[in-house]
Amino acid sequence: MAGPVLKACKSCSRITEEDVCPKCGDQTSREWQGYVIITDYTKSEIAKRMNITENGKYALRVR
Ligand SMILES: [Zn+2]
What we know:
- By secondary structure, the protein is mainly beta.
- The chain is about 10% helix and about 35% strand.
- Bound molecules: zinc ion (ZN).
């Protein structure tokens, strides 16, 4: 019943199903906690703090 395993990029925290981040090409990890959905990174304080320059779903903590 489990859906696709979501992973998070170790560099940019982007959440993806891929083993390699589609954004920066770095490795992804299954060990992550919490996430934020950025719908407008230009207006988001969190995006600014996390250096996010693209809308999407990002993990708050990646191990
Ligand atoms: Zn990345």
